[in-house]
């Protein structure tokens, strides 16, 4: 933490506590002054925070240059958030799992195989100094090996961490390094033996837990011996095997690996007689209900191969496997109670598991049945047999199984040590301690207490070692040493192992005949309740709390006394000693018996029963050490051994509980850092001078801060001292040693800030001068270029003006003519587009109207009925009144008409004389109109026949001529597609005139009447005739122009036909073949023989209906569909799909090339719609008649092609609309 004397400026970054990320970075937004109650911060997500300041300011962040340093001690600010942040950055961003922290190597489990342990990497680290390469377990192993060779002192690697943190893997990698670098002396197989000990130890001592799939359930110390820097042998010492796992496993956990390996290999011929089966059928292996995540059968092969390398014969291996199988069968022995009260129990003689157990071990079933259910009690002068309850018998059975496995594990370790032992001994050694880390669970029992006790002892050794190294570093550099207070856990160790401590009271309680967990807990409360490291939980239960260095742990007293006693049924052990199995008898040798080889035991045969010896006496007659006493003695020996070596520490960290690769859980990592002593190392280093630089490193880094006066020749030390005296005016902030300069916490960050300011000022000065020179140089070049450009531009503009004046007159004439042509062409295109759009729009409106009429049909019927009834009612009411009004009105009108008729009768002859000339003019106009109509009919005839489409536009064309209604003189005539407009115009004109209109003599009839009404009627008719005549004359002029265009096209057609004489009649031939193909399909139906289809190749880019007279606009669509029908008949679906894809791509290319041609877009839109219509009509059964369904496509599924054609049709329609808009906009 920072003192308030060092006030952080605005913009500085600090760490604040966070409930999720433990520590969170924030930036100071306002200058802090001493006495302020809050600190204004801006978090990384942009939110503002007013952080309350209680006693100290939040810790400062390190500079960016120190982020991700490979040694945490090199950080300027040494505190918990800085350590956590550096580890997170290295683990997540750089994928670096190793980091130095002073003398500690922090290893984070990546939960993913990494290519950093190959043989090339081993030799890359060999012979290198510790700081030359990235942090690695090989670098720490090389440091230990180098110190052992250089100083001749024993070394040790202390590897600790939680279960699943990677301790076992780190120990194996260290062993690989020592055997690879050290080699072997005399025995070339010693390296293989040392490495072969790992799979054997893992098979018998490792198991799957909820935290780790290969968790070591014991502590081991592997001492590798060296002579002349070569490996000569090794020794393995084990501590506190978890024997309770043999008889009980929690959910999602497994027993030891060796049991599952045997069950998975039960089909082997050499294991047939062991009675093995699936692991899920044995009581001792099915409690966890956990499926195997590894190949157990392959692991057994590796274990047996390792046994062979270690010199264990095949016979001993099979005998060992039979004992392990007997343990599995022992767990399946069914013990039943005699009554409901549970006063007695028995074992059925026909129990299959009992028979297998006794057969494998060579003991009598009756004796086993007896001593499983009875207990021998020896008094001063008599011996009693006590009948056990069912639960007591089950406990006795489980105790025997645990004791048997414990003895098997000891024998296995002794055989491994025998194989690794060197006859000539060793001069020096390197020990690897793979021990359990600090454990704190919801339920903590005797095993967790012993584990945490061992970690307390190791932490004490670690603190003393770190303190000693700090003192040596200061003495070497001749820096005044000031005693640094550190957290000493000696009071906690005294609480556990001191006089009348927890272990003494536990051993005393175990000696009591009626000792129990409850009475032991009461003794603890009475003795240690006043201790600062001992607490009593608030809950009323037998438990106690010990304040360890890593935190408070609550232990439940249940099972402590029984586990410490480790009571085993001596009668059953005596039976096992008298077994026919030589290996089993060797496992249970007493302390007084000499070592007897298996070969001699086998040759001597089974042991004969003799007089009772000490082995048959109960345990009360012998003194036996408790488990805690044995563990304390072995732990003290371990501490003495480690104290005599040079320790090197590896702290394994578990980044998350989900075993996910490269996932960093800050809360879990902080808990482990606090528990493994890393933060204590940081605190001890931070109490003195944590940042240490050599003079050359300091001079190279901060050369910019050294002035000219301070550069004294080549003496780097004196230059650095002068610069530090000027930069850090307080001498207590640094110390100059012999080869290094020591800084207090935060001073490196201050120097970094000064260096940043100096470099920034220098960069600003350089940038200012450089930018000025560049600007002046650029201005000179630009000015010269501008003058040159102006000169040339003015001349060019003058010449352009003269040319423009000369061409302006000609341009006006050309523009006039061109605009006229463009306007005419645009009008024609727009007219055609408008007609097409109107057709589609009217069709759409008609369909909408039809749908609306259908929806409102019932409403219309109801409305019609109601309105009819209302109309009839109203009509009935008004009819009488209307009749009366009509009568009155008609009578008055009749009188007025009579008067008018009398007046007109007098002057009718006069009107006839006046209008006689007018009747003659009317007759002349009528004759001229008849002549013009006849001439138009003559001009409308054409020798080319135009196909006429039937009422169903999608069914194909017909060749019937188009009849134009008119007079008798208008004969039947046929028009081409270009003459369509003329035909329509003439038909409208002829139809507008009623039959015999010119022959009715209208003026004669009108002339019969000389009334004023007749004159007005005649004038109106004359005006209408005049207007009609003008319209017809204008239409005739348009028709004449169209006929001229037709004549030109006919001439071009005649020339084209002359060029293609060899291909005359091609179109008629195609049409004939099409009709014949339709006839054959209708007649033959689903005939299997394929019919030939004439294939024609039409270049889509150049196809026009005008280029082929008489050609159908939809001809390409019909030809493509005929090809698809032929492919369907041949059942060639790939050809059909490729044909459709090629056609679609060709249409797209044509549209891309002729996107602005209205005729081309309309042509291919019609073809696409026609082809889509044919596919929908003949590609599915829905909505078709029986006759149509008979001709549908039978073997092709073209739904995807139909969707593609539909999308293409939509694109073509949109392109048509855009083309029409382009042509209509100028005219609008």
Automatic annotation (TrEMBL):
Do you know which InterPro entries this protein is assigned to?
A: Dilute_dom, IQ_motif_EF-hand-BS, Kinesin_motor_dom_sf, Myosin_head_motor_dom-like, MYSc_Myo5, P-loop_NTPase
Biological process GO terms, please? actin filament organization
Name the domain of life: Eukaryota
**Residue positions binding ATP:** 161-168
**Locate the Myosin motor domain: which residues?**
67-756
Gene Ontology molecular function terms on file: actin filament binding; ATP binding; microfilament motor activity
Q: Where is the Dilute domain?
A: 1141-1228
Coiled-coil blocks:
1019-1063
Q: Where is this region: Actin-binding?
A: 635-657
Q: Spell out the PROSITE patterns in the cross-references.
A: DILUTE, IQ, MYOSIN_MOTOR
A Pfam family matched by this chain, by name? IQ
Gene Ontology annotations for the cellular component aspect, listed alphabetically: cytoplasm; membrane; myosin complex
Q: Which UniProt keywords apply?
A: Actin-binding, ATP-binding, Coiled coil, Motor protein, Myosin, Nucleotide-binding
Q: Where is this region: Disordered?
A: 598-628, 994-1014
Q: Which family does it belong to?
A: Belongs to the TRAFAC class myosin-kinesin ATPase superfamily. Myosin family.
Question: This chain belongs to which protein, by name?
Answer: Unconventional myosin-Vb
